[in-house]
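Following the same procedure, the fold was encoded as tokens, giving this record:
***
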Amino acid sequence: MEIWINPACSKCRSALSLLDAEDAQYTVRHYLEEPPTVEELDVVLRRLSLEPWDITRLGEPAAAALGLAAWSRESADRDRWIEALAGNPTLIQRPIITADDGTTVVGRSPEAVRSVLS
């Protein structure tokens, strides 16, 4: 299992604590230091059954600088959003956990984190 984290994020630290308490085997990816590629984001979004705007942190300064709040959320704009996330990883909601079976969740709640452990 792999978990994308920002160590400064309390939700990420909580997810790691829960994984450790369950003796889960996982790899940590500091996604701000090693940003996901456009291709990786596309795969994760498909696994999540979400669109890129669904995992975008619109309150971040980078979102305001890009004017993301005004961007269209049509399927034709999907690639533009993914490229923005790949180029500005601070915009990506966290933590994102991908289990070995491909199950992927945004692990912001203990329930979401536990869902990849079964």
The mean pLDDT is 97.
